[in-house]
Amino acid sequence: MGNCWCCLQCHGNYAEYEHYQKESTKERPGWMPCNATGLYMQVPHVLGQRELDELEEEKLEIDDANQYSLRKDAKIIYESMKGIGTHDSELGRIFGTRTRDQIQKIKKIFNAEFGGSGGTLEEWIKDDTSGDWENLLLKLSQTRGQRNAERIFDSIDGPGTADDELREVMTTCSPAEMHEIQEAYEQEYKKSLVKDVQGDTSFNYQKIMLAILNPADFLAIRLNKGLKRVGTDDGRLIRILTSVPRSNYAYRKIMEDFEDHFNTGWRDELEFEATLPDLQDVKRSYQRLFGRSLAEDVKRDTSGNFRKAMLTLLRDPAETTAISLHDAMAGKGTWDDMLIEIVTTRSNNMLLRAADKYKAKFGRTLEKDVKGDTQGDYRQTILDLIKPRAMRQAETLKDSFEGVGTDDDRVIRVLAGRSRHEIRQIARAYEELTGNPLEKDLRSETSFWYRRTLVYILRQAEEKLVYVPESQLLRMRDI
Fold it and tell me: What is the rounded CA–CA span in Å between residue 410 and residue 189?
């Protein structure tokens, strides 16, 4: 059995088996249907240039596999409900196997292409189904925020509060979900969720509900009370400032970079970690609530080494790294051990952020100061470490292509075995560095099967990942 095309993709070849049979007039040897999903599968081989060019011409006017699949789902839903009667099995199959994000995309396509005079997808569902079946489909067609906002509204609307329902929603949602819920609540009911919860709860129960709704604000208020009391509550400061993550930047950057590529259970776990309040969130809340910075109040109410420790904790880690880099190179000579310690124990993303902070704080670039305080291979190694990894690889490729002939060993080392994300980053860095698309220069510097394979690696890296329902994925033992 060959590899499913969601693992071994080829540029432009985005079609399901049935679609290919109906629409394509050309033979495409080596392809077979996957029984588990109905998608193409390809017997592994390297495509020739003619095949690549043919596939480029045969895009079938489909943006990407996922978009085509979701548009087909929207059409199936429409055909299941139009006319007399409803094909409930088709509705159940689609609503039961698609992710919440996919259902929202399907709904958007349905409303744009098939809604017409019949109205929105929700209106079609109401007309064609009833009872618990209707209720289930309507709930599945809502966003996560809309569903939970409705549950909270129902629990606190009217006299009394359905506390079990309220607690279930509030204690099972991540901070990101709570943000979605608040937005959906205010949009749907034109009221503040915070004020409504405040009005229906009291005492410590109210405190914990408000803390769940906005944990950064809650921590800011706690810190302020600890600083305002007669004598500073040092234990409270230490407990909060050392237990809250200093920065969730890395988590959030991953979520931003790969937003469209997650369709696995661990996305929810990563999202939860990424959206917990960090010290930067608490500092912003403190400034907004009390009109002054948390650092100012800590500085005023503490002293000695304790003050220094607290102020260091409050800094953005990237700013602390920038200050440490400056201290290592300030004045005559360089504290080389300190400089080496920093550049070898910080992530590439952290060093890039520190470089931005360095320029903002000291008025010159980190690169310039490194060049002025180091020399030889030692200097070049540090300069390599403080620039984007993809840019270092792009420079290697550029050097490999210059002069007579091509340093193929270096090209292979850069491109072979890299992840799709790394290949995409290298290609973009190369174009930024040289002004030429990497594929264009690879074509001009290589030939035959070697060139075709490298082009294939580049092209498959640019394609989006395909969503496969988890229930189907579990049955696909060949993937």
Answer: 61
User: Does this model's pTM top 0.90?
Assistant: no
Secondary structure of residue 39 in the 3-state scheme: strand
pLDDT in tens, 67-97: 557 888 898 999 888 877 677 888 888 887 7
Q: Are strands 3-4 and 31-33 parallel, antiparallel or unpaired?
A: unpaired
Residue 472 vs residues 20, 32, 468: alpha-carbon distances, Å: 21, 18, 7
- Find residue 32's DSSP bridge partners: 41
Per-residue pLDDT reduced to its tens digit, 245-279:
777 777 777 666 665 554 445 566 667 777 788 88
Both tokens of 18, joined, read 């049935």
d(CA 369, CA 384): 14
DSSP letters, 15-33, are -BHHHHHHH--S--TTEEE
CA 66 to CA 44: how far, in whole Å?
22
> For 120, which DSSP code?
-
Say what angle helices 100-113 and 131-141 make with each other, to 10 degrees: 100
- 306: nearest Cα among 219, 226, 232: 232
**Alpha-carbon distance values, 199 to 4, 142, 181, 222, 404 (Å):** 55, 27, 18, 21, 77
Rounded Cα gap, residues 100 and 94, in angstroms: 11
Contact 307, 298 (CB under 8 A): yes
Which candidate, 350, 424, 417, places its Cα nearest to that of 390?
424
Name the strands in the sheet holding 40-42, side by side, starting at the edge strand that comes first in the sequence: 3-4, 40-42, 31-33
Token pair in block for residue 394: 């792009």
